[in-house]
Write a structure and sequence with these properties.
Chain lengths: 203, 40
């Protein structure tokens, strides 16, 4: 891979761009069997190009910057372990996001896992506190049911369509629409902002 | 896909200010972490 190449795009639409032109989409980038240096290069391009988006979504999901930071880094470390196959998926970012989500759910169920990860990898790097402006929003997000929160975050932050949210969460589209509608209404009520509940979800 | 000016999308986007202030490990550190896990 051209060392100057970078990942550009959003969601599943990633392209490698380089001074020599636009490369193949990630879905066609078969890393398996290629030189280790190339494997490293594709990961080193993918990670910084996507990690802030995943962090944003995990922050919204957990309401805790330190937890989100740890979950994101763990999910990407697991992606690296399997990069030869993960890099050939249609949407590697979705794979990382799903892993981070599952880790979060697992840690909620078994708090000791979070403690053991902390012991294994040390405390997270310095993590800023949520800004005062965001405290109410973080609190409201944590107050709505997990399934609704996940649907709202995937649709409104991840930019996924209703069908894509349904696919990623393994739920029927009708269920996703109901979760989005209820999630919006709950957020509107918690934030005392009626504009949040006015627009119905777009497919 | 939601519109960029959808009120919920705009509201959630406000979290970006915190996200951008949060440090993340560099790519090499993440790869090392994955490699350590593989060896173990």
């Amino acid at each position: 891979m051209d060392p100057g190449a970078t990942w550009q795009g959003r969601g599943r639409f990633f392209f490698l761009t380089s001074p020599t032109g636009v490369g193949q989409g990630l879905r066609r980038w078969h890393v398996a069997g290629v030189h280790t240096g190339e494997k490293v290069a594709t990961f080193d391009s993918f990670y910084p190009g996507t990690n802030r988006r995943v962090l944003h979504q995990m922050y919204a999901m957990t309401g805790n910057l330190a937890d989100a930071q740890e979950l994101v880094q763990e999910a990407y470390a697991r992606a690296w372990q399997r990069w030869s196959s993960v890099s050939t998926f249609d949407d590697p970012e979705a794979w990382v996001r799903t892993v981070a989500w599952r880790l979060a759910a697992s840690r909620w169920r078994k708090t000791k896992n979070g403690v053991s990860a902390m012991l294994s990898h040390g405390p997270p790097e310095h993590t800023p506190e949520p800004s005062i402006d965001n405290v109410a929003l973080v609190t409201a997000l944590k107050a709505i049911p997990e399934a609704q929160r996940r649907a709202v975050i995937l649709h409104h932050l991840g930019g996924l369509s209703v069908a894509e949210v349904a696919h990623e969460t393994g739920s029927p589209e009708g269920t996703v629409k109901a979760r989005l509608s209820r999630g919006r209404a709950a957020l509107a009520e918690l934030l005392a902002d009626t504009t949040l509940a006015e627009v119905s979800p777009n497919a | 896909m939601p519109e960029n000016n959808d009120p919920v999308t705009l509201t959630l986007s406000a979290l970006r200010t915190d996200v951008e202030r949060t440090p993340l490990a560099d790519s090499r550190s993440v790869r090392r972490r994955g490699d350590r896990r593989t060896r173990n």
